[in-house]
Each structure stands twice: as structure tokens, then as C-alpha cells.
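Need residues for this backbone.
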């Protein structure tokens, strides 16, 4: 790590998001700390993230689709987060995947994992991220591993070699099952968002059929005394870059969502079996700021008894392919943003985390 990046990371423990505002590609005027600081934060214990019943869309006919679109749109326009029930994905898919995450990180060595160290492919930094090195602006207390579409055996016309992406056999099939199940939810979610905005609900069907995604395995190790006193958070405050993210409810608390309306944080503890959905920068851009890319972070659990328990999460970020152009949807008022290629938009934002040289210019 360069000395400049080392200073950047050390500052990240105390930094505000405004210190990195030059990288933003959509409006984000609120200010927040990247990590929770005891005694300096406001928490909203009353706000409830809305729960939306996806079964209405899947099995409720045209009226069900309309009702679900209203539920989802109101939730996302309000705070950029929703909790999905009725999605039809068996809980054992997620439980087996979480067990595999633990197996992957606890049965292999860092040196073995470093053979797959992350690098940019297209828009997305894909591969393994060591503990405290998931970004260059904050020493997150997490190890991560990002797999995109090419890391799964789901394209019949492309030769797939498991060893190119996976540290051993047995992992890809388990995670592919989750990816394929959630991929079936992409069009229902996007069509519902467009319906809510009074846009042709099928406008993005082609762009999101067989589209790219980032499936991330997050392994938050047990918290020892050194980590507890370091001042670092488990994951820094950030906004997702994508259209939207699927996040199966986690096993250990820590997810916090920022409420721009009152400048406070909401502790989000979704029921097991549900999926947390949130919108990202792509979505804020194309909706002309109508649906926000909402800030969230992962902090240490309040209960010290949970410190020895690893926290597992498996978010799946939904993108469009790099050559697609992000344009403001029709009928959403005076256009605030010009058209931009997804690869330029995406890498300009994420160069905040990976270094200015990461960005792809026009």
C-alpha cells in the first residue's frame, strides 16, 4: 500500500463522507461519519423499514402486481430500503450458503486466498479482499470475496473453468443456486419500480436479462480486544453503486441505515427468511433523484456476547453491462443528469475505494 493510501485509510476511521465527495456521481448532500462513534451518533428507534410482499407480484395477477409496485415504490422512495417477504426462495438455500462462507474462510489460509486477490474486470473489482483491505479509505473489519456472472457455470455457450474463480470444489454449485434463485427476482423488482414511476414496466427487460451482477461473500471475523479498541467499523458507511441489492437477512446484528430526513441511523434487523432490498447510485441516477441511493454501514453488535460470533452476509448487487448507457427515465421532470456509460459512471465512483487510477475515462 502506498504511503498516500495508508494515510487515507488511517484518516478513514475519523473521516466524514464529505472528505470523498469529489467521487460522487449523484447528489448526496447529507453528511455522516464513516464509522459509528459512541456518544456522537443519533439513532431512530421508531422508524420501521417497510415490509413488501413479493408474492403479490408472483402469484397475485395484475392487481397483485399493482399493489406490490405501490408497496415497494413507497418504501424505496421513502428511504431506499425495503424488506421482501413472499419471495419464494427456501431458507435452506441461504443457510447452506452461509455455512459455505464460514467453511471457505475458516478452512483455507490467507496465502491460499491471496492467489485470487481482487482486480478490476470490466466495471467491478472481482476476487478476494483481505481483512482491513476491502477499501483504501477505511480498515473495515471484514474479509470479502466478489464473484460476478463469469464466475458461475450459468452460460451454456461459454466454457467454464471452476478453478479460475474458486479456491476449491463444492463452493460454486451452492452459491450458484442462490444466484439463480435471486436472478429470477430481478425483473419483478425492476418492473415494479418502473410501474410505480409510471414508466413502461418492461423498459429494462432486455438490459436485465442475463445481466451482470456482483455476488459478495462477507466474512466478519470474531471481534477481539484489538479490533474493539481500534475505532474501525465492520464496514464503512457507503452507498451501493448498483441499481439495487439483494441482501438475505443476516445472522448477527450490525446493519445501520441512514435516514436523510432526520439525520439519524436506523438499526435494521430483518427477520430471518426475508431479503433486504436497497437502491443504489445507478437507480438514483436514472430516476432523477426520485429513488435515493441510501447510506448504510455495518457496526459492531451492541451485545458483547456476540463479539465471538462471525457475521456472515451474502449481498448480490445488480448492474447493467458496462457498455449500457444510464439515462434518466422519461416523465420524471427536468433532467438533472446527462447520459453516461455504465463503466465510466461505476469506476468513477468506486475509484474512491480502490484508487484514482481505477477510474475508466471517457
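Answer:
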Amino acid at each position: 500500500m502506498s504511503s498516500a493510501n495508508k494515510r487515507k485509510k488511517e484518516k478513514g476511521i475519523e473521516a466524514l463522507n464529505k472528505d470523498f465527495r469529489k467521487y460522487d456521481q449523484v447528489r448526496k448532500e447529507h453528511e455522516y461519519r464513516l464509522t459509528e462513534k459512541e456518544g456522537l451518533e443519533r439513532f431512530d428507534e421508531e422508524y420501521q423499514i417497510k415490509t413488501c410482499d413479493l408474492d403479490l407480484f408472483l402469484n397475485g395477477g395484475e392487481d397483485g402486481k399493482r399493489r406490490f409496485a405501490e408497496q415497494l415504490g413507497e418504501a424505496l422512495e421513502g428511504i431506499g430500503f425495503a424488506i421482501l417477504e413472499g419471495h419464494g426462495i427456501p431458507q435452506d438455500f441461504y443457510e447452506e450458503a452461509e455455512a459455505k462462507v464460514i467453511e471457505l474462510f475458516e478452512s483455507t489460509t490467507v496465502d491460499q486466498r491471496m492467489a485470487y486477490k481482487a482486480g478490476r474486470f470490466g466495471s467491478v473489482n472481482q476476487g478476494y479482499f483481505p481483512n482491513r483491505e476491502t477499501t483504501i479509505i477505511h480498515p473495515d473489519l471484514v474479509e470479502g470475496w466478489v464473484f460476478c456472472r463469469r464466475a458461475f457455470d450459468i452460460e451454456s455457450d461459454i466454457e467454464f473453468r471452476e478453478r479460475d474463480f474458486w479456491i476449491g470444489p463444492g463452493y460454486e454449485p451452492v452459491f450458484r443456486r442462490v444466484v439463480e434463485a435471486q436472478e429470477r427476482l430481478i425483473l419483478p423488482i425492476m418492473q415494479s419500480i418502473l410501474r410505480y414511476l409510471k414508466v413502461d414496466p418492461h423498459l429494462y427487460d432486455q438490459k436485465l436479462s442475463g445481466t451482470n451482477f456482483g455476488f459478495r461473500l462477507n466474512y466478519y471475523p470474531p471481534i477481539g480486544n484489538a479490533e474493539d479498541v481500534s475505532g474501525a467499523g465492520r464496514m464503512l458507511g457507503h452507498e451501493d453503486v448498483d441499481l439495487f441489492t439483494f441482501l438475505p437477512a443476516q445472522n448477527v446484528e450490525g446493519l445501520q441505515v441512514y435516514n436523510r430526513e432526520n439525520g439519524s441511523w436506523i438499526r435494521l434487523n430483518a427477520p430471518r427468511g426475508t431479503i433486504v432490498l436497497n437502491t443504489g447510485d445507478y437507480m438514483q441516477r436514472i430516476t432523477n433523484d426520485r429513488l435515493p441511493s441510501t447510506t448504510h454501514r455495518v457496526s459492531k453488535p451492541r451485545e458483547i456476547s456476540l463479539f465471538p460470533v462471525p457475521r456472515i452476509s451474502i449481498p448480490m448487487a445488480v448492474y447493467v453491462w458496462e457498455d449500457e448507457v444510464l439515462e434518466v427515465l422519461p416523465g420524471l421532470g427536468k433532467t438533472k443528469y446527462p447520459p453516461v456509460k455504465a463503466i465510466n459512471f461505476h469506476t468513477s465512483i468506486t475509484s474512491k475505494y480502490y484508487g484514482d487510477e481505477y477510474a475508466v475515462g471517457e
